[in-house]
């Protein structure tokens, strides 16, 4: 069973998933099919993960990720686009399309102590959230300019209009976006548009309506983009998706 709630960290979400089969070897997330082959889809986020004796990080995805592994108990803190690198101390592009142990990024002894703390907590998800909050207090805040970039692209603005409004050159924007999001602003814009399409589909809109409402040139464009980013047609994707949680509504 999957459940989530807003985090004390602005824009973040705390989630849990328990004793379903199959269990993910990396990030779990909202509104994902319980069948073995349903993938985690790109969303622009990165997650701090805990599962029974392990702390991991799920980097930003650019393609569908198919979970696997034995049944297990999972908790996560999903961090909104551009916020995880400051907390982790690693540029996002180094973690793109990867699931890695936190001990590969932080001192192993520290990770062992943190893992033991969460393993023994009555509420592992709450303990994981506290870890993230404590770490955020130790680090510099996310780049505010990149936070504005993410907000503008989420609202459907073009990359060029976003760069012009912020007074930043295309090359500088691309370089800083790779560090913050894991990829350039055009890829982030495509992924955020995908998420808008998924939300519209979960509300029952037709593919033609989704295309017109969420920034695609036409239905054929929507279909090409969904195939590229999810590996699925609109029919399969929207027919089998579970309703999205309120966070994405």
Automatic annotation (TrEMBL):
Keywords: DNA-binding, Transcription, Transcription regulation. InterPro entries: AraC_XylS_family_regulators, DUF6597, Homeodomain-like_sf, HTH_AraC. Residues 143-240 form the HTH araC/xylS-type domain. SMART domains: HTH_ARAC (SM00342). Coiled coil: none annotated. Transmembrane segments: none annotated. The keyword Transcription regulation applies. It holds the Pfam family DUF6597. It comes from the Bacteria. Gene3D superfamilies: Homeodomain-like (1.10.10.60). This is Helix-turn-helix transcriptional regulator. It comes from Streptomyces griseoaurantiacus.
